[in-house]
Amino acid sequence: MKLEISGLTFSYENKKILNGLDLSIREGEFVSLLGPSGCGKSTLLKLLTGVISPEGGQVFADGQRIRGITEHFAYMPQNDLLFPWKTILENVCLYGRIHGGLEQMKGEAMAQMGAFGLKGYENEYPSALSGGMRQRAAFLRTLLCHADILLLDEPFGALDVITRGEMQDWLLGVRDRMNRTVLLVTHDIDEAIYLSDRILILDPATGKTGSEIVITEAERSRDWLFRQGELRQRIYGEIMGGGKND
Ligand SMILES: Nc1ncnc2c1ncn2[C@@H]1O[C@H](COP(=O)(O)OP(=O)(O)OP(=O)(O)O)[C@@H](O)[C@H]1O
Question: Which stretches make up the ABC transporter domain (predicted)?
Fold first, then answer.
């Protein structure tokens, strides 16, 4: 599903956070949003999920204007938010339990357990799983709610650096199979380079997106990522410089 944002404006009290932000993401595209701390990245995701309302501007999903809370977005935060008293299968199928279709969702979940590295853990409780496994369970739960657009807010931010790298490798492996439009908020430049089709820098000075970096590499690997020093330096400079175009 294609996402278009036009002229989005939002303030907290008297502080303008977004000021006429325009953004367009193609169907199936993976876009990362980078920017200095406090520039409004999470605020943008909250506006899209409908948790808060914009002062101005419009959001379109496949050309259709949307407002408030809709079924188009699935949101995944940094914390896995699994219920400790529910098994992994019950946690993963939470939305089926709430919205109906539980039995069908259980079937889908069981079919995906292997790809998510959770086979054999369906009936375990979250406390028996590693941080990476819990985050993959949270990811599967997000995917099973069948929203077309995934909003990922630092989904691996709470993980140690090794597990985080493993999760990035895993996400890269399932990225194409997921076939979803993704907007990822991250502080991690390498994560953005490794996973994205396009990187956008949110500029706190303007409240809009500034620079845009397109990543065309099809065959990504850790070796390839480690060689991206120049690109890494450029993105860092643009974040620190407020994302201004040259
Ligand atoms: N509920 C709130 N009330 C008032 N100000 C807020 C509220 N939530 C966030 N802010 C402020 O709005 C600005 C943008 O916050 P936001 O969380 O969107 O930034 P961010 O880019 O996601 O930050 P980070 O990278 O540190 O997670 C910050 O200055 C923050 O202090």
Answer: 3-229
